[in-house]
Amino acid sequence: MSLPWLFEFWALPHQLPPGGDWKSWVIMGGRGAGKTRAGSEWVRRMVEGPTAAAPGRCHRVALVGETFDQVREVMVFGESGILACSPPDRRPVWEAGRKRLVWANGATATVYSAHEPEALRGPQFDAAWADELAKWKKAEDVWDMLQFALRLGEHPQQVVTTTPRNVGVLKRILGNASTVATHAPTEANRAYLAESFLAEVQTRYGGTRLGRQELDGVLLNDVEGALWSTATLEACRVDAVPALDRIVVAVDPSVTGGRASDECGIVVAGVVTTGEPSGWRAYVLEDASVRGGPLDWARAAVAAMDRHGAEKLVAEVNQGGDLVESVVRQIDPLVPFKALRAARGKGLRAEPVAALYEQGRVRHLREGRLGALEDQLCQMTVRGFEGRGSPDRLDALVWAIHELMIEPATGWRHPQMRRL
Asked: Domain Terminase large subunit gp17-like C-terminal spans what residues (predicted)?
């Protein structure tokens, strides 16, 4: 029976090599998305000929992973490794002493550790498979040595299988004109994953910035000089919140409608006001941002107030003026509304809020689906926003924290305000 070994019949779209004259194929995916299987099958495709003894397109392959053990246990002997994917009549022989696989047609695949870039100085190849490159400690050096070694044949090629991380070498590879990329989330391969695993990781990481990287396979950028970092945001995550003294919904409205308009940032946050302001803690509960016309975001904002029992809706009115409040009152004439007007740039407004995060005084509710908001946070600098489009979600968050933490603390320092 040959059908079980015909990968093209069973493969998911992201696991099949793209067309075109590419040098590097980068397969980025979430955990369990089928990246290892795609790499193993590509090696088979390169070295196998029409028969077991017939030559294939490639004759010498480099298998590079973080360590020798990981290459052997994952890329060679793993459940989706080369040996498991090969039919009995095409299965290569493992030569442990020489750390290589040998096929009946004479093709070889030699194992290399990313801890030893100099080991790639001297050998030469016509194909290479690099696994989990974004984890390599010496990624730049190893990748450069591999490029010098990839010099046999008419058109040497290489495959990179990795969960994306914000590392320079991966971004440099993706920026090359000779690179093609495919992408898939963990969910794409759910037929081959335990339901309990999917349920657990989605519950714990779904909607978070870490989940976007590890489950959705999205390459996240931490901009140099950003006011927030991924590490900061992961450290502030909580599974539940205490009883909150105040809850507000903050809106950064889009003043134009239609599919091409900016998103309207809508963020729900609350605060525990125990003792003096230095002891207050804020909790970001939900990112309810929407794209649409004024009535769309007004409905979404009022609905968020109802869901969380918010006491007030606060909104920036720099662009919309009185129109912003009038739109909200079309949905709920009695909604408690506060207009806010920005007098400083986005970066300067965001800086004191970022300082509260550094002090550990702001927490993110894990189930709040805050991943897209966190992406914007990690692209905001004092100079301004360095991502695409407008940081509407970030602006809404900043207004919420100003309303809950910064403005009340400013008034607390004045005796007349403390008596109110």
From this structure: 250-403
